[in-house]
Structure of SMP-30/gluconolactonase/LRE family protein:
Amino acid sequence: MDRSTELVPLHYVSLGARGPEDVVADAQGRVLTGVEDGRILRVHHLGDRLTARVEVLAETGGRPLGLELLPDGGLLVCDAERGLLRVDPEDGTVRVLADSVAGERLRFCSNVVALSDGTVYFTVSSRRYPLGQWLGDIVEHTGTGRLLRLAPGSREPEVVREGLQFANGLAPSADGSFLVVAETGARRLTRYHLTGPRAGHTDLFADLPAMPDNLWREGPDGPIWVSLAGPRVPPLDLLHRAPAAVRSAAARAAVHAPFRPGRTIGVLAVDDDGRVLHHLTRRSSRFRMVTSVCTAGEHLVLGSLWEPGVAVCALPTAG
């Protein structure tokens, strides 16, 4: 896990808006993302920065984060302000699928996946801090992240797992027997069993060297790509073992302090047994805070909550 190869940047594509937090690729190799001003964008021809073109698909009226393309061409969107949405890329229609759970307004919805039977699972990163104060939750280590389930045809989601440390990216296993959930605040991937004798239970899928963010599965037989949004911070590990009052005070200070992400970035690819297939890193990167990664054609595409564009990188060599 501690051995890595070089993440090779090729070029950068400006989007004219900040914060393409999640990136997903469609069957044509186009990349979709949501940005800070509420727009959903589709980027064409990312492989060539001179011909790359940005198309506006919709405006959510909130802050889109995690995305999931559906077989019928629709797009699921986790909006940090409005809840779980469905967007029609053809006409820009935005429909709210769920904006509350058990009488509590949904905020900070983070990432979403849809299963073949139409069931939707999505994460809520924090019940205490909004997106603009995300660092407070990481520092306080609240453990208020959730995994939610929305049954086909339902408008009322149910909480299937609580107590997650900043629940974030989601990806299904190839056989549909479990979900992988990124717990950013715990630097781990957690497995939530969907079938079998452990259905409804969780266990450890993988410990990670850095803080995971969004996940993306490269097709039914491909690996799960893991974006690494931030490095391990040993003083933070110590703080997480401190009394709750100490962590709360530190979090109040953190949300008001200037923040600038570091210049070491990385991504992982793992298989369905949690084995690392690729670990790519780059030091002194001009592109900071990688919060998502997907493959599009012959390239890796990186998204970032921090940057006003996406980075296009070389795919790793086989093996």
Remarks:
- Helices lie at 134-140, 234-239, 244-254.
